[in-house]
Design a protein that fits this description.
The radius of gyration is 15 Å and the shape is globular. The protein has a single domain, classed as Glucose Permease (Domain IIA), CATH 2.70.70. The termini are far apart. Strand 2 and strand 3 form a beta hairpin. Strands 1, 2, 3, 4, 5 and 6 form a 6-stranded antiparallel β-sheet that branches. The protein is built from 1 helix and 6 strands, in the order ββββββα. With about 100 residues, the protein is mainly beta.
Length: about 100
């Protein structure tokens, strides 16, 4: 269910927070358009908005956060089992910062 919907010119810009269960919340931010309303129930596969460049972003992208019991988790673990080995290795390569 959509528990928060904001259209702002600063910060996250246009964003939604969806509660999937009592203790799980998902944030989608910097959206161009929002296609759902407050208190709407969301179905899997439903279009909720479009990726954009709203708020304080520096380019078109989706800011995505998952919170469980008010604690943030790394979203990659929500689809980890669907990734092949090459993709997983590339993810780790992109996140490595070399130190000289």
């Amino acid at each position: 269910m959509v528990i928060e919907k904001k259209e702002l010119k600063s910060g996250y810009g246009n964003y939604l927070i969806i509660s999937t269960q009592e203790n799980i919340k998902i944030l989608f931010a910097h959206l161009d358009t929002i296609q759902v309303d407050l208190n709407d129930k969301i179905e899997i596969g439903q279009v909720i908005g479009t990726v954009g460049n709203s708020g304080m972003s520096t380019g078109t992208h989706l800011h995505y956060e998952i919170w469980i019991d008010e604690n943030p988790i790394d979203p990659i673990f929500t689809f980890w089992d669907k990734l092949n080995r090459e993709t997983i290795e590339n993810i780790y390569k992109w996140n490595i910062i070399p130190y000289d």
